[in-house]
Every structure is written in structure tokens, then in C-alpha cells.
Amino acid sequence: MSENQGKWALILGASSGFGAATAREFARAGWNIIGVHLDRRGTMALVEEVINDIRAAGVEVVFHNVNAADEGKRKQIIAETVGLLRERGEEGRVVAMLHSLAFGAIRAYVDDGDGAITPANFQMTMEVMANSLVYWTQDLISSGLMTTGGRIYAMTSSGTHRVIRKYGAISMAKAALEANIRQLAVELATHGITANAIQAGVTDTPALRKIPDHPNMIGRILASNPHGRLTVPDDVAKVIVTLAVPATAWLTGDVIRVDGGEDIVG
Questions:
Q1: According to the model, what pLDDT value does residue 128 have?
Q2: How far apart are CA 14 and CA 22, in angstroms?
Q3: Per-residue confidence at 76, pLDDT binned at 50, 70, 90?
Q4: With contact defined as beta carbons under 8 Å apart, do 100 and 11 qualify?
Q5: How many separate domains does the chain show?
Q6: What does the alpha-carbon distance between residue 110 and residue 209 come to, in Å, rounded to a whole number?
């Protein structure tokens, strides 16, 4: 029997990029997967590929195509998961959660000809990319889905300390996300649950390609990264799954760089 049998990983943003890679990696390690994603008909074929890969690993998979930042949908997923795990006799077995929601406003602060960022843009970006981590964590704890031994991870970026054109609102949200991780790490210590941020290197994902300056970013990293390549989602997924073990109980409140040394060379 696998030591991971009966464990579940909740992946927010499970259909592409870091979320999809981490869902696949957890599945290969024997974890069951609950995925939350928001996709339209045009990208559902890619979602089905992720689901099929998880099933091929011989584990259970439940995907929800909803807005993870919607309170009603979140409550519904939590309730359905409580019922599912209770039926299986696996209460309290959501052992890991990855917050990998990449949806925010990419606009200049000062009108550059394409319009300036608005209060609604700021609010949406903060709610999706930072605050939703807290809401999901609250519900996991209060519902009893996650208990002692739980591991919470959230994807951050070097945008917390670098300026990228039109990335200001996301930089703000990622900085807040890291603050949320620190606060959760302290508050969850008495629950035996850890919380850490994962700072990936520049990765060629759909989210990156929405940034206007992404071609220059890719060129700069290819020239400067000590390994001579970009980070890929599997690099990050392997680290997250490796860390989701009892031996990392003393590792919490950190920002863990997974970038091949990219950030330290500028």
C-alpha cells in the first residue's frame, strides 16, 4: 500500500501551467486530486488531457470548472468534498493545497494610451490572486478537511520586488499573497499546518504570455539564468510534491525560490 493512499491534494488553477504540472506530479506520487479551474469550451480539450493523465496514474480525480474566487462556488466545492471524503472514510485527508490562480489586471497605473488601471481592476486582482488563498484556507480548516500535517503552498513571483511593465497590480497582489502566507504560517502553527510561498522563475505559461513585455523577459532570462534555460512547470511541481511530507513540518512562512538561481543573478 502506498504511503500516500487516501491523501488528497487540492489544486486551485489545475488546468494549465504550475497547477496542471503539480496535479500530475501529485498523482504520480499516489495522491488523489481535487482540481479547480476556469476554462471555456476552447480550452476544455487541454483540461481533459490533465484529467486523463491523473486517472492514468491510478488515483481519484474530481475537477470543478468554476471561478475559484466566487464565494458560493467555493462553499459548494468544500461541502461536496466533505461529503465525498466522509463517504470514503477519509475525513481530514486534504493534506496539501496549491494556490495557483493567475488572473489579474495587466494595465498601466498611468494612462499610456490603453487606459489606466481602475479601482475595480485593483480589487479583482487582489481578491483572486491574494485574498482567495485566505478564504480557501479558512474553509479547509473550519470544515475539518485539512488537519495536522497539512501543507499549503501559493505561487508568487519576482514581481514582488521587480518592476515589470503593466504588472503593477499583480506585483501588489503577489506581495500581499506573501504577507498572507506569513500570517497563515504563524496562525496555523498550533494546528500543525505549514504555509509557504513558491517563487518560480520565468516560465513560458499562458499567464506569462499575457504580459506585454514577455518576449524581452524570456530573452533576458535565457541570457542570464545560470542553467541557460527558463524554468518549466515540472521543475516547480517536483519541488512542491517533494516538500509535501511530514519531515518538512519545521519549514513554514518562507518564500522558496525554484528558479535555477535566476533571481540571485539579477
A1: 97
A2: 8
A3: very high
A4: yes
A5: 1
A6: 22
